[in-house]
Input
Amino acid sequence: MKKLNHLFSIATLFTILSCQNTPQIQEEQSWQLGPFEKLDKVNPILKPSTDLSFMDPIRKEEVFFEEKNVLNPTAVVKDGKVYLLYRAQDSMMTSRIALAISTDGVHFEKQAAPVFYPDEDHLKSYEWPGGVEDPRIVLSEDGRYILTYTSYDGTTARLFVATSKDLYNWQKHGPIFKDEKYIDMWSKSGAIVAEQRGADFIAKKINGRYWMYFGDTDLFMASSEDLISWSVLENAESQEMISVLHPRPGYFDSRLVEPGPFALYTKEGIKLIYNASNAKNNNDPNLPEFTYAAGQALFDSNTPYKLIDRSESYFIKPDKDYERVGEVNEVCFVEGLVYFNERWLLYYGTADSKVAVAETN
Output
C-alpha cells in the first residue's frame, strides 16, 4: 500500500466547485449503507493454505499460490451463488487472483487453481514478479464482467482492466490509462460507478460516460465510453489531476484514502465506501497510527466528482486478533460488496493475511 503521486485529465470538465471537499456533515447521515455487523462465528472465512497448487506458466513449476496470504477480495452474485475473487500470495509474495464459491455467502469452497495470474504474455513485464492484485468487479450492459486490478512489476503499481463472460476465462486489456502521460504513473484501486438491478451491479453511464474513482492517497476520477480505455479528470489550466476526496487531519482518514468496492449509483447520490489510513501524527488519537479503517462518502448522482457528504468516522475498524496482527498490522481493507438473500454482505481483507465478512441486519 504505497502513496500515489499523480496528475489528472478531461479538458471539458475543469469547473469544480471549490467547496467540494468540505461538505456539510449531516447529523444522521441516513444515506450510508449499513450498519454492518462482523460475523464473528465464521470469521475469518478464508485463510492461507498449502493445500492448493498449480503449474505456474512463468516459473515452470508447481506453486502453492496461496501459501503466504489471502486478502482483499471482490465479489459478485452469479446463478444464485456468491463468487469471491480474492488476492492470493505465494511464499515469494507474487499475487494471483483465485476464486471461491458459496451458496450462502459465508461458507466458501476454494477452486483448485487461480483464475487470473501473470503469464508468458504481452503484459508479463507489467505483472511480474509482483503479480496481479486487489480486484474490483462490475457487470457491463452486455453481460461482461469488468475487472479492474493492480498490476505490479515489483517497482510500480498500475491500474489495469480485464473482461470475462464466465469469471474463469479472462481477456486482459492492459493499462486503463493508455495516454503516454500516465502509462508509468503509480495508480491502483479502480471503483467503477454501478447501478443495482436485483443482485447485479451494472456499470452506469452518467452524461454519456462511465465513471471511476481511483487512487491510494487522494481519490481521483476517470471516465470512459467503453469501460476499457479511460481518461483521467484533469484541470484544463494546470493539466493536473483533480482530487475529489482527500485525507483530513485529525480524523481516521488523516493519512490516505482509497476506494473500496464499486461505487453505488442511487437517486440520492453515488455512495462510495472507502478505505483509509490513520496518520502518524495529527490523526485520530483513538486509533493506532497507520490503522486501516473504512468510511463512506456521497457524491452527486449527476456530477460524480462533486462531493455532497462524508462520514464523520469509520464504520468498520480492526478489533479482532486476526485483523490486528498479520502481514500488515491493524488492517480492515474493504473491497467486496454484494446484495444476497436480502442483505448486504461486505467482504474485506484482515491484516493483509485473511478474509472476513460483515453483514447488514
